[in-house]
Structures are given as structure tokens and as C-alpha cells.
Design a protein that fits this description.
The protein is built from 14 helices and 18 strands. With about 400 residues, it is of the alpha+beta class.
């Protein structure tokens, strides 16, 4: 029978892990529960909830630094930053639209899964903003790395290693971020009715321009016709100038309009959270590719599957939605991507599919062996989220 534990301190977590190791009983680590469908399903004796390990422990707006316990909700972090006209640089995605889950995403979950959004092309990934971390490893030892100021990161960079480890190396208890000022204004240049090849050309030209694009997406299945979106942020006069130059340059001769205010916010929230694929039972894949390869990849996939698409990061990130046929057609999709040097993650699928199909891109033998060795160093008996990142743990 699965037991639940909701510790309120780092010390309690350490004791729970020590007992689990001694009894060889695996532990599933849970934050807000909003990303339960991400990764391979795990079967454990104990569910360790971090919901009660919450609170912002340090916020220095002048130093652009924020430190929070892992169970702190993302909503609380963003509210605190917004009060000082600041924000997280990487615009973390909210998976509730894809999974239909409830609750609130936590900042620890964001770090554990290295969650980023559309602004990644300009602000970097979650791990690029992370400057410090505290965690409990599989021995029950409390470790820390990095610091609470941007320049205080020395030695072995466990900060980057823990970010994106999906709870397989340790239970993250506290995280420290560098943050950024929020812009005075945001607006979007929307271009209508481009095919994917035309859209990627426009997005690439805009990203190669000096106009500091912070969002570059293409929605081929948008209601009312395909929509290509370029987001610009900054001071009011800068935004107006950049939009004007983009309209006369990369979008010259095309059907354009400016989206601003609540409609602008709604559009980028929809793109960030892949809302076009919500409320369906179809499988969702996340493809990371070279932007210039996106049209050819779409063409090859479309000859094999009835697929829908959302293109983000200028075409470097492709979300596709297909039916769950023959284990989500993983081999066919990854075979197509192998010709382009890309990789694929199965983000949404039934649990039975995720038990059979490698959810994450299978690593080369050398990388797989190294990853297994690292996991054994941090979690010698394999009790932390066992099997979350691989279908079968290496023996």
C-alpha cells in the first residue's frame, strides 16, 4: 500500500529518505502534482509531497535574487516578483492544460523538470537562471551547491545537474534564482496565412534582426487561419519602433496586425502551454530540432500520421499531436528525427504507453552509462523516482 508523507522541514525529508534506503523502499517525489504525466510512471512505496515545504526565504529586488523552498507555488513566486515589477526570465510552462490536472505548479517542480517557455530563445532555460540549490540525496544527506548571489557558483556545478533530473538524483528542497526587470510594454506582430516554410523563413529573419524578439511562433491550425507571431518587449517607444521596422522588413507585403493587451497575453499563454492540444486524449510529442529543418520534418511526419502542430522557438521546438497507435509510433517519429539530428520527448500518453516507450530520447551508450553512474553516486540503491527517466533502469 502506498503511503504519503508531507514533511515540513529539510530534516524530516532526510530522515524519510534514510529510512527508505534502509528498507529498500522507493519514494516518489511530488510537488503540486500538475505534471504527473511527465516521464515514465513509477511504482513506489511512499509518495513524498513537498507541498508543506514552502515559502520565499530571501528576496532582494536590488540584487535581482530570489530564494524559495521547493514547495512554494509558482503563482506565489510570480506574485512576489510582480509586486516589484520583476519576473522569471524563462517564462515557465504550465502543464495543466495538457494533462487536465488540478492544483498549483511548484517552483521545485519547475527546476526538477527544467521547465521553460516561449521566452527561452531570449532569456535562456530554467537552468540558466538557477544559481543555487539545496537537496537531499539518496543517502539522506543534505547537500547544497551554488549560492544566493549570481557570482557565487564555484566547483562542481550540481545546480545544473539537478535541474532537469526529474527527482532521480535528489529531493530538491530550496532553489535560488537570478530574476529580471519586467518590460514596460509587450506587443505582438501577427502575420496571417503563411505556410510552415514561409513562416520559418519569417521567424528566422526576425530572430536574426537587431530587434530583440522574445517570442517566435507559428500556429498552422489556428482558428481563422494560420498565424505567425513575433513578440517584442521593452520600453514603449522601443516596442513601437521595432514593430514598425519588422512590419516594413521581414513582414513586408504580408497581411499583418498588432496584438496587444489581454489578447497578447492570452496568445502567448496559449502558445507557452500548448493550449491547442488541451481537452483531447491524443498523444503529444515535443521535438527539438534545428529551426530550418522544421518544414521538412513536418512534411515527413504528415505523410505518415494525422498530426497537428505548434511551432515555437522560431521552429526549433515543434509540438505535435497524434493518435496513440502502436505505442505512440515512437520508432517512426524518432527515425524521422534521426535524419535531422533532432530528439523527441513523449510528453503526453497513457501510462501503459509510457511503460513501454522511452519517454525521453534514448541516449547513446556512453551517455547512458555515464548517466547511470551519476544516478548511483547520488542514489546508490535507486529509491528516488526509480524509472522516471528510463523505461528500465540499467542493471
Amino acid at each position: 500500500m502506498n503511503k504519503s508523507a508531507a514533511p515540513v522541514s529539510e530534516g524530516e525529508i532526510a530522515e524519510i529518505i534514510k529510512q527508505a534506503k534502509a528498507q529498500l523502499k522507493p519514494v516518489e517525489i511530488k510537488g503540486g502534482g500538475t505534471r504527473d504525466g511527465l516521464g515514465c510512471p513509477v511504482k513506489t512505496a511512499t509518495t513524498l509531497s513537498l507541498a508543506k515545504l514552502n515559502g520565499i526565504t530571501l528576496y532582494e529586488p536590488g540584487a535581482l535574487t530570489l530564494v524559495a523552498k521547493a514547495g512554494t507555488t509558482l503563482k506565489a513566486v510570480e506574485k512576489t516578483l510582480r509586486a516589484k515589477n520583476q519576473r522569471l526570465a524563462f517564462e515557465p510552462m504550465d502543464h495543466r492544460a495538457l494533462y487536465g490536472t488540478k492544483g498549483e505548479p511548484t517552483i521545485g517542480g519547475v527546476v526538477a523538470c527544467n521547465i521553460s517557455g516561449s521566452r527561452r530563445i531570449q532569456g535562456g532555460a530554467c537552468r540558466d537562471s538557477l544559481i543555487g540549490v539545496r537537496f537531499v540525496d539518496g543517502n539522506g544527506d543534505i547537500l547544497k551547491n551554488g549560492g544566493r548571489v549570481m557570482k557565487n557558483v564555484t566547483g562542481l556545478d550540481l545546480v545544473k545537474l539537478l535541474c532537469g533530473s526529474h527527482g532521480t538524483l535528489g529531493v530538491i528542497t530550496e532553489v535560488a534564482f537570478k530574476v529580471l526587470p519586467a518590460p514596460e510594454r509587450e506587443a505582438t506582430l501577427a502575420i496571417a496565412n503563411l505556410n510552415t516554410s514561409q513562416a520559418i523563413d519569417v521567424l528566422s529573419a526576425a530572430l536574426g534582426s537587431p530587434f530583440e524578439i522574445t517570442g517566435a511562433a507559428h500556429l498552422p491550425h489556428n482558428k481563422g487561419g494560420a498565424l505567425t507571431a513575433l513578440r517584442v518587449e521593452g520600453f514603449d517607444s522601443q516596442v513601437e519602433y521595432r514593430l514598425s521596422r519588422l512590419r516594413k522588413g521581414v513582414a513586408a507585403g504580408l497581411e499583418t496586425r498588432i496584438i496587444k493587451g489581454s489578447q497578447h497575453d492570452k496568445l502567448w499563454r496559449s502558445i507557452r502551454d500548448v493550449e491547442p492540444f488541451k481537452n483531447t486524449s491524443r498523444c503529444v510529442w515535443r521535438l527539438s530540432v534545428k529551426p530550418g529543418d522544421a518544414p521538412a520534418i513536418q512534411q515527413q511526419i504528415s505523410t505518415m500520421f494525422d498530426a497537428k502542430y505548434v511551432f515555437d522557438w522560431g521552429g526549433g521546438l515543434i509540438w505535435i499531436e497524434i493518435d496513440d497507435i502502436e505505442n505512440a509510433r515512437a520508432n517512426e517519429i524518432r527515425k524521422i528525427l534521426s535524419n535531422f539530428g533532432g530528439h523527441a520527448t513523449l510528453v503526453r500518453a497513457p501510462a501503459k504507453t509510457r511503460l513501454k516507450v522511452p519517454v525521453f530520447q534514448p541516449a547513446a551508450p556512453g551517455i547512458a552509462a555515464l548517466s547511470s553512474s551519476i544516478r548511483k553516486k547520488f542514489d546508490p540503491v535507486g529509491i528516488l523516482n526509480p524509472g522516471r527517466m528510463v523505461v528500465r533502469e540499467p542493471a
